[in-house]
Amino acid sequence: MKILIAGAGGQLGRCLMRSLASHDLIGLEHAALDITRLEQVRQAVSQHQPDLVINAAAFNLVDDAERRVHEAYAINALGPRNLAIVTAAAKIPLLHVSTDYVFDGTLGRPYHEFDLTRPLSVYGASKLAGEEAVRVLSRRHYVVRTAWLYWEGGRNFLNTMRVRAANERLRVADDQFGSPTYAPHLAEAITRLIVTEAWGTYHFAGAGGASRWELVREMCRNLGLDEPLPVAASTFATLAARPRYSVLTTIQDPRIELPRWQEGVAEFARGSLEL
Ligand SMILES: NC(=O)c1ccc[n+]([C@@H]2O[C@H](COP(=O)([O-])OP(=O)(O)OC[C@H]3O[C@@H](n4cnc5c(N)ncnc54)[C@H](OP(=O)(O)O)[C@@H]3O)[C@@H](O)[C@H]2O)c1
Known about the structure:
single chain
């Protein structure tokens, strides 16, 4: 299959370039394709004639989004809308990636694909607007929600904690729960999904939930570092509100499940020792 990946320079984009290596890949980084520009998207699709487009581009700075509202919506909502318009016109499918932050975290059990959304932040609302544009404009779509994405080669919470743990005793929130997801595991699940033609919304995240503290403690154990101290999330003042409990589960068919989140942390630890 010929696959065009927008946002190919991000952590998921780079993992997809590896997982999908047996396909004919066109990986376009931000400088080569700005998804907020409809004409650029039209030009890229008409030049490369892909069989599938994957959107791995996003504005992911959750706190910054509260102030950079237009930029967040341009990249997270207008961008996928542009991709959906162009792929629908070219009669090709679109895979778009979204987030657990479309939920408010008050449900009290893991969220499945059909649960009601109610974002708490500009980031979450802009990502939800992007999902909705894709659903409305592209009949043949996959919307893949993921969460707490990390990879040793990327810019993410766990990598920040790993670097800081070398110099200080970490304090990490033990009252915020989510689904830590190792980006190469997500890329492998997407690689399996794209051949199914089972259009719809999917939750792809590391299996089993964890608090931020449990996640960092697991990393520290794997790397032989001091365990973090558990503290309340309210210890850290943040601009954006985050869901307290946004663990993801899946009830979709075909059921594609990722490994348990602890397996991802073990791979992350091995990978970061090799850096
Ligand atoms: N990271 C997480 O914890 C997390 C959690 C839940 C869901 N997700 C979702 O997972 C997906 C992948 O995230 P990620 O962590 O791989 O993100 P990432 O590492 O931040 O990569 C995003 C990429 O998008 C590019 N980009 C930004 N604006 C663009 C534009 N207008 N046109 C084209 N490319 C643009 C960025 O390039 P520049 O840096 O050069 O601007 C960057 O390479 C996103 O949909 C994200 O919302 C992520």
